[in-house]
Amino acid sequence: MINLVWMQTGACSGETMALLCADRPSLENLLRQYDINLLWHPSLTAERRFGDVLAQLTSGEQTLDILCIEGSLMLGPEGSGQYDTWKGRAKIDIVRELAPLATHVVAMGTCAAFGGVHASGPNPTDCTGLQFHKGAPGGLLPGEWRSRSGQPVINVAGCPAHPNTMTKVLAMLASGEPLALDTLNRPSAFFASLVHQGCTRNEYHEYDIEEEALGGRGCMFFSLGCRGPQTVAPCNTELWNGHSSKTRAGVPCFGCTSPDFPSGRDLFVTPKIGVVPKFLPLGVARAKYMAYKNLARAAAPERVVNREMEP
Ligand code: SF4
Description:
Elements: E1 2-8, H1 14-19, H2 27-33, E2 36-40, H3 50-59, E3 64-70, E4 73-74, E5 85-86, E6 89-90, H4 91-98, E7 102-108, H5 110-114, E8 127-128, E9 132-133, E10 136-137, E11 154-156, H6 163-174, H7 202-206, E12 272-273, E13 276-277, H8 286-298, H9 302-305
Parallel strand pairs: 1-2, 1-3, 3-7, 7-11
Antiparallel strand pairs: 4-8, 5-6, 9-10, 12-13
């Protein structure tokens, strides 16, 4: 039996809502098939009291195999953590107490991983991530901190985190599968491909058929702020609710798995240097980019120019 505790800190419950949409595996199948005992979740364990669970864990009566944190960690005011408390006790102190007891610690969502929305300026509550502050190592826990498994905090980034990425990561941890991490401690198996890969607007991107306004079928990279070519996430290779993603629904990728999310810039506008996007697809040289784009547009087939392809 694997004991799992899910704690919410500075959160909007986005990961909890997403978790309920997971289908490969679903939350119910995850718990059943991987022998996971959900010791505590603020919305799903009404039969228990958090204080009782906490006492059992800190006394050693119960082991803690997986600790999931949903939400940013509020350090303020002045490091006291009193902006976010449970029965008067700062939640950051509870997390500090539980983390060393856990075999694995998982930051569920970009807020827990990097600080996310709450850590954006002006950040009056002094929010941070569990082991990163934006892209820099060291959040509530120092960069060198390791759980009992020897791994750092596992960052399942996303705003919210992808439902099936959350349940798959938990399934892998419960089965003792090794989990390789990237340089931002995100599980490499789920953060190795770009949102751009698998986007149904890819052919429009190739031929530089771009939209100036929302609602069209073309690519949203050049004007509408899409960060798909710069963002690692499984959104277009493992569809949400089995059938959709932001770009399939006509919304640009906001780059929500990145440590700088939200970046402070307009989410629906592509910043440019002259007429060229300031941020190019990962690994593409600026000088070659425009030459390629001009050629591509000239070669675009009529069916693509006329947007006859269904995204
Ligand atoms: S809409 Fe975004 S993700 Fe889709 S092809 Fe264009 S740049 Fe790539």
